[in-house]
Amino acid sequence: MPAWRRLGTTVRGYEGGSGGQGTRSIRIRQELQRTSERDAAAKGISVKALVSSILTQYLEWGRFTEKIGYVNRTGHGYRSMLEAIPDDQLASPPE
User: Fold this and answer.
1) Domain for residue 76, yes or no?
2) Phi and psi at residue 69, in whole multiples of 5°?
3) How many domains does one find in the chain?
4) Single pTM value for the model
5) Which residues of the chain have pLDDT under 70?
């Protein structure tokens, strides 16, 4: 059974109207806590700032991409897909 640890974070807009800040306490597995501490230290930010960044990214982009079935591709993945298409099946750019 995973061990859990309480993580306190500040969530913008949670209390006090738009733009305000509030405190939200969540429980996460200790493994995630250690990883978040390492990642935050590597970025030179606090765990609170890291969690806020992750939450913001999800709320402003991730939840919408889930709805439309968006698949993120890396440059390498995109290049691999294009290389798999025979040259005679690729469209020529407009002249």
Assistant:
1) yes
2) 75, 25
3) 1
4) 0.56
5) 1-20, 94-95
